[in-house]
């Protein structure tokens, strides 16, 4: 365990007899690891000997995001507040520590911080500063606790993490879990926009094929004989099923239904309204 020289302030300035328990990885063995690296999730983890670990995570989404979680071996016993500071190490004389945020301590939950604070902590680590979390120990009222993220050996893994984040898919599972695909007239050919939607689903399935169930509902407009339209709706659904199995989804987890010209969502009295009825609805569900 590496001891830090810190100033007494606010949350920490209680009894002069209070002890400070400090947790941080030693400089010589400080380890950062790209714990998860895919187009769905990027996670950068840091081990805190005797305490737990700290993890920064970003997920595939339409919006760039970042979360910080402090994984504690001993979860909080009561509610409280921790102070988060950026503390320069001892070999940066003249640099002042500064407060970054407060972190809510919740009973029996790990600590976490929102996106803006998480990004700030990463930038402080990149500068060589140590983000440090201070709080009153919930198991020993005579003790204060300081948990520091050691910036040693951070930079190279952080660059790998940044590269991973930049390659995340620009949409999440929720964005593709319910998709309506449209078709050209009297055809199993998708419109250009729907082809791109299907490709998005395919890109996701390359990363995650662990789906519990895929429901594919094929539909047709009322142009032509009803029996023919029902078969066309089934062919449309089967084409999508074949695409998913090629992406690695097990065939027995895919359920298709052809509704023909039933279940219209628009009248069939204009070319525009008939186009709305030529569709396949794809519903994905995960455990």
TrEMBL record:
**One of the Pfam families matching this protein, by short name:** OmpA
Q: Which residues cross the membrane?
A: none
Can the keyword Signal be found in this entry's annotation? yes
Against SUPFAM superfamilies, the record matches this protein to: OmpA-like
* Cellular compartments annotated: Cell outer membrane
Instruction: State the superkingdom.
Output: Bacteria
State the coiled-coil residue ranges: none
Q: Which organism is it from?
A: Alteromonas sediminis
Q: What is this protein called?
A: OmpA family protein
Q: Give the matching InterPro entries.
A: Bact_OuterMem_StrucFunc, MotY_N, OMP_bac, OmpA-like, OmpA-like_sf
Identify the stretch annotated as signal peptide in this record: 1-18
Cite the CDD domains for this sequence. OmpA_C-like
Where is it mostly found?
membrane
> Gene Ontology terms, cellular component aspect?
cell outer membrane
Location of the OmpA-like domain: 171-287
| Entry keywords, A to Z | Cell outer membrane, Membrane, Signal
